[in-house]
Amino acid sequence: xxxxxxxxxxxxxxxxxxxxxxxxxxxxxxxxxxxxxxxxxxxxxxxxxxxxxxxxxxxxxxxxxxxxxxxxxxxxxxxxxxxxxxxxxxxxxxxxxxxxxxxxxxxxxxxxxxxxxxxxxxxxxxxxxxxxxxxxxxxxxxxxxxxxxxxxxxxxxxxxxxxxxxxxxxxxxxxxxxxxxxxxxxxxxxxxxxxxxxxxxxxxxxxxxxxxxxxxxxxxxxxxxxxxxxxxxxxxxxxxxxxxxxxxxxxxxxxxxxxxxxxxxxxxxxxxxxxxxxxxxxxxxxxxxxxxxxxxxxxxxxxxxxxxxxxxxxxxxxxxxxxxxxx
Amino acid sequence: xxxxxxxxxxxxxxxxxxxxxxxxxxxxxxxxxxxxxxxxxxxxxxxxxxxxxxxxxxxxxxxxxxxxxxxxxxxxxxxxxxxxxxxxxxxxx
Lengths: 327, 93
Description:
In chain A, 30% of the residues lie in helices and 14% in strands. By secondary structure, chain A is an alpha/beta fold. In chain A, the strands form three sheets. In chain A, strands 3, 6, 7 and 9 form a four-stranded mixed sheet that branches. A three-stranded mixed sheet of chain A has the order 4-8-5, covered by helices on one side. A two-stranded antiparallel ribbon of chain A has the order 1-2.
């Protein structure tokens, strides 16, 4: 057993292909310091997702994330994953190239989302490739109709006590908030900045005192959207889904030995299974290389870059508050 | 045996790191030691007495290469053997 379930239906139905969209290999980022920035601050790009993130929750509170997935059939557009309303839609990765009379389906599906930890684990073995049997003149051929991905994301709420001088905490840089100018205090504005600024540097990571649920959310969804769907599943360096889809769609058996679509499906199944197994192996290998090689602070991973982008806006807010207070 | 052998230093660093992890509420049997780096050089220089110890949750580590490595679940601990002080510097996610 390959671990993939199949949803079979007979029929033809050639429809249009999508466009290609895969991400490149992440590179090592260089941290640069501005003249007004403390030595330990990282200066990540401004492409923050912070504006899309949900409001902070209270300490220990659960984050409820509703996930709704629309899985497209051929020619019905890219998959969409919506989390909690408007935030963190799964990126559209319409892996595709126009094949002769066939079309490439975009990966769909979404991870189960929960709390209790901060992690992301795809389950390529649980992905479902659906395919039908199509009439191809003197032959029957396989015709992929959908790829539904599966996995798990967990996001643990970081404590947020906006008016209390405690740690761990989420910064609330306002008068009456949780930032002060008391030397030696864990709530001192410089300590707050330093703790968030080391997030994507060696030995950094979340906290120990200052972080945010929004940063963790951006981090875990970057793993799913970009490391997994956008790279491991679809990129040439990984599973190269578009090519696999095309190869499956090119598999045929003669009508001469297979009287109807049901018989053809039996004959096609082991050939399709072999392609799916190769895709799974390459996808997992790429994911493991990405996570094993880059998912530590300062190693150039996409998750830490996404989280750091969120934290950079919070650092800017602390800095602005410090300046406004004349500290 | 002299106390400054590599094995003794590493054992002391890991032991101090484990203590602070347990004090932070994490059971040691849930974690696996994935690296211990002496910070004697490089951009993260702290001195030859400092070790950076990293643990990762065992449930995120697959038994073989046919399954996915889970992203996240690390605990980063900095240990100063000169003062016998360990500090959790952050968590992976």
